[in-house]
Every structure is written in C-alpha cells, then in structure tokens.
Write a structure and sequence with these properties.
Layout: H1 2-7, H2 12-30, H3 35-52, H4 54-80, H5 85-99, H6 108-128, H7 138-146, E1 148-149, E2 152-153, H8 172-200, H9 209-229, H10 234-257, H11 264-280, H12 286-298, H13 304-315, E3 318-320, E4 326-328, E5 335-336, E6 342-343, H14 345-350, H15 359-385, H16 389-392, H17 405-412
Antiparallel strand pairs: 1-2, 3-4, 5-6
Length: 428
C-alpha cells in the first residue's frame, strides 16, 4: 500500500494544503488539536472532491444506462460466437464503437478519486511515522498526532500493536473497537449501495450476464473493503466511509428522480408523477418533461409502467404531448390511444361507436319501424295501381288481384316502367 501511495506523491501537496485550510476553520471552532477539527477536515476534503466529480458521475449514469440497453445485443453476440472468443471480442468492440459506449465509463468516479485517496493515505502514513509531508510542518504534525477520534488516533490502524500506540497515548482496545466499527459501517454502506442499485434500478425484463456480474460484485466489494480496511489508518477510514455515504445518498437521489426504464424505481416514479399531474394539471420540472417526452416517443414499445401511466392520464382527461407537457380538455391537439398511437381528437370522435340500445328499447322500436316500412311501400306502389284504364286504353289482367302493386310485378319478373314483357301462353 505504501508503494502504491508513493506513486501519487505528486498530488500529496495539494491534498495536504486543502486539509490544512479546512483545519484552520474547524480548529478555530473545536480547537486545533481535537479529533473533530482534523476529522471534519477530512470529511470536507471528501465533499469537495465529490462535488468536483459530479460531471463524471453523470457520465457514469449515462454509460450504465447505455450498457443496460446493449445487453440484449451483447447476449446475441455471445451466443453466436460462443466458440470463437476472438471474434466475440471483435464484435463487442464493434458494437461499442457503433453505439458510442465505453464499459470503463461506469468506473470513472472511482478511478478519478483514487489519486486523492492514495495521496491522503500517504499524508496520514507520514503523520503516523512522525514525518512532515506536503505543507504539514512540525507544529501541524504534532497537532495531528494528538488528535483522537472516539479515542483512536488519526493515524492508528487495526493491525497496530500496543507498542505502536504508545507515542499516541491511546489504548489498543479503543483503537480496535473504533476501527472495527468503522470497517463494518464502510462495508455495509458499500453493500447497501450496490443492493439498492440491483433491486430498484435495474430493468427486470432483461436477464443478461451483466446482471449476474453486478450481483456478484454486490458481495465481493464489501469483502474487499473489510480485508483492506484493517490496514487503513483511522483518517483513511473516515475518508472512505464518507465517500460511501455520499455515493449512497447521490444514488438514492438519482434512483428517485431519474430511474432506469423498466425498473421498480420507474414504476414508483411514474405513480408519483401521475398523482401530481392529476392534482395540479401540469409537469413540475424539465427533468419530468424529458422523461414524459421519452415515454411518448416510444409509442408501442413502452413497458408496462409507462403504458399504465399514459392510459391513466387518458382516462382522467389528460394527454401527454410530444414535447413532454400534459394538457387537459376537449381542445387537445393530440390524444394518446392505448396502443401508443397519437391521433387527432376529431378522428377519435369519428371512430366512436354508436351507443348500444337495451333489449326493451329495441323491442319497442320494432313495431314503429315495421309501420314506417308499410307506409313507404304503399306510397311507392300507389302510382302503379292508380293509373286510369281509359287513358292508356289498356285494362288490368284478369288474374291480377287488387292491391298487389309493385310487389306482384317484382315477383313476376316484369320490368318496372317501360314496355312490359308478354306472358308466356303456357303459364297461367
């Protein structure tokens, strides 16, 4: 560990300078030789570093989402070239290049803060050995060696012996208890952070080897922290515990406000958004608009939670628009149907089915309909039967019955209007 820390000695001076500046502030409040002054200086260093790494954290989220989207394609490549590992690697790299993704992007925050971590370890190790390092001079070194956090010196380790703690005026029992508690908290926070990611913010509809790897890391990382933690000074444990708690809180915020599509967190988020829209009638922020816009753009490819959200808005008289806004009322320019196809409100009205009548209504309407048909038939037949016999010089056939009208003509096959076809003499 000392060899690795020495590799990052170039950043030791900036890290020690930041710690000293924070120590001046907290030393004026709690006293320069207290564990609170030095401990809070380390915590403030972590917060400052993590704020500077927020852009990298955003890139990490985008890279993780992109990798989750590519999992089905990656699985196809693995199955297609399962006997040719070289071709499989080539196809994977080709896929990454075409989609603009990078598997290492998800590790950017850890990789970026590792130099600061090892630089801090180098500074605390110098304090434990009584060596001035960076901008920490003799007076600051003596002050740091006097500082205790719950009875444990800032530079003490779990593996230290009783003789190693004599210069710090500390008991081995206190050091072991404090370091053990901090190591357990550090490992537990790492496990909870990874478990929160796997149980709430992963698309459960896609089962890929990537998910199995993440589940494995959920148990491997805490064990690694526990093994390496026994060799970390108390100050480094404070640093790593703080960064784990920061990561956990940052991830909780992202999962709540920008969940992965298809995850349990997205279903909970859309349920909260639905309640807000139905109560206030509008979208609150640009982030919500971006999520609604992406859902509308998916159309038929929406997952169950997204389809439920859109259909729920439609049922209560709202419609999600292509720009991410939500409108209400009959003056909608677009209506989102259940299958995700946007249609105009007039077209939706034209396709409305007529209202079905009850059985009693249909039975009461049947006699009136029959009476209407008989009246219309009588009126249409009247001109044919009411022709005067003297006007045309012709008489009705002897076999014709009064009132037969157009119906008898239609049945006998005679033409309606114009010259009539003579009857066959063989037929009566």
């Amino acid at each position: 560990m000392d060899t690795i820390a020495s590799l990052f000695s170039f950043i030791t001076t900036p890290v020690s300078w930041v710690i000293v500046q924070f120590h001046k502030v907290y030393g004026a409040i709690f006293g320069p030789d207290t564990g609170w002054a030095w401990g809070l200086s380390i915590v403030s260093l972590v917060i400052l570093i993590r704020i500077c790494l927020i852009p990298l954290f955003v890139k990490q989220i985008k890279a993780t989402r992109a990798m989750q989207t590519l999992q089905p394609e990656m699985k196809k490549i693995q199955e297609r070239y399962k006997n040719d590992k070289q071709r499989q690697s080539e196809e994977m790299m080709k896929l990454y290049k075409e989609t603009g993704t990078n598997p290492l992007s998800s590790c950017l925050p850890i990789l970026a803060q590792s130099p600061f971590f090892f630089a801090l370890y180098h500074v605390l190790n110098g304090i434990a050995n009584g060596e001035t390092i960076g901008v920490i001079n003799e007076s600051l070194l003596a002050s740091a060696q006097k500082a205790h956090i719950f009875g444990a010196p800032l530079a003490a380790k779990f593996t230290d012996s009783a003789s190693d703690l004599v210069p710090f005026d500390a008991s081995l029992t206190n050091v072991r208890i404090v370091t053990a508690i901090m190591i357990i908290m550090m490992s537990a926070s790492q496990f909870f952070t990874q478990r929160q990611l796997m149980t709430k913010n992963v698309d459960t509809s896609v089962k890929t080897p990537f998910m199995q790897q993440q589940k494995m890391l959920m148990y491997v990382f805490p064990v690694m922290f526990a093994v390496f933690g026994i060799n970390f000074p108390v100050g480094v444990l404070v640093y790593w515990l703080t960064t784990n708690v920061w990561t956990m809180g940052q991830q909780m915020y992202v999962i709540r406000n920008n969940p992965t599509p298809g995850s349990k967190a997205q279903a909970a988020y859309l349920e909260r958004l639905y309640k807000h829209v139905t109560h206030h009638g509008k979208i609150r922020s640009r982030g919500e608009k971006a999520i609604v816009k992406a859902i509308v753009a998916k159309g038929r490819e929406r997952n169950d939670a997204e389809r439920k959200f859109i259909n729920g808005l439609t049922k209560v008289g709202f419609a999600a628009q292509a720009d991410g806004t939500v409108i209400r009322g009959e003056s909608q320019t677009a209506v989102q149907t259940e299958d995700g196809t946007p249609t105009s409100s007039t077209a939706a009205a034209k396709r409305q089915q007529p209202k079905r009548q009850s059985k009693s209504q249909r039975q009461s309407a049947a006699p009136a309909k029959a009476a209407g048909e008989s009246v219309s038939l009588t009126k249409s037949d009247e001109p044919e039967d009411a022709k005067p016999s003297g006007s045309a010089g012709t008489a009705k056939p002897a076999g014709s019955k009064p009132g037969s009208g157009g119906r008898s003509k239609a049945q006998s096959g005679q033409r309606k209007g114009g010259p009539q076809r003579p009857k066959s003499p063989s037929k009566k």
